[in-house]
Specification:
The structure is a single chain. By secondary structure, this protein is mostly helical. Helix content is about 75%, strand content about 0%. The protein has six helices and no strands. The relative contact order is 0.18.
Length: about 180
């Protein structure tokens, strides 16, 4: 299977799970402020690193499931950046799925461009490196959010959206390798 097909396969799995959770919970994530969403992504990535280092999960869910969660929360992050957060659910499931698909396609397009330039380098990387890169991206997001909250951002960074897209793509690579 080539990278694009593998990427699409993992994203289809993520989409199916997102749609099921959307059915059960609605778009309850619309309430998450940016810093809370960043923290949610952070705890997922830290859990992956913890399992990688301890070589066991006492809860029973594995690393791959956390990569799937990172993908879905990364897309939620992109939606929240675009729409802002809400005080209550303000989006139908159909609207949420349309936005999900839009951002998933953008992530795919970015991956294809970067994969061309980096010549499939991700295939030679260790899964633990994806985890570390995701944690680095999250630290960058935290720094940007904190600077913006204080009005001190110099706007010299790639921005939060670019970091979310990179998190999604690294998590997809993890999902591919662990399948």
């Amino acid at each position: 299977m080539n990278t694009e097909n593998q990427f699409r396969s993992v994203m289809a799995e993520c989409r199916a799970l997102f749609e099921k959770k959307l059915h059960d919970y609605g778009a309850s994530w619309r309430i998450l402020r940016p810093s809370s969403l960043t923290d949610q992504l952070f705890i997922k990535a830290k859990r992956i690193r913890s399992i990688e280092e301890k070589k066991e999960s006492k809860v029973g869910d594995g690393i791959r499931g956390e990569f799937i969660a990172l993908i879905n929360y990364g897309i939620v992050g992109l939606i929240q950046l675009e729409r802002g957060y809400a005080d209550e659910v303000d989006m139908t499931p159909d609207e949420a799925m349309a936005l999900y698909d839009e951002h998933a396609n953008e992530a795919l397009e970015l991956m294809l461009k970067k994969n061309h330039d980096y010549d499939e380098a991700w295939r030679s990387m260790r899964v633990s490196s994806y985890t570390d890169f995701i944690l680095t991206k999250l630290q960058r997001i935290k720094e940007i959010e904190d600077l913006e909250a204080r009005g001190e951002s110099l706007a010299a960074s790639e921005g939060i959206g670019s970091n979310y897209q990179d998190i999604i793509n690294y998590a997809v690579f993890g999902g591919i390798k662990l399948k």
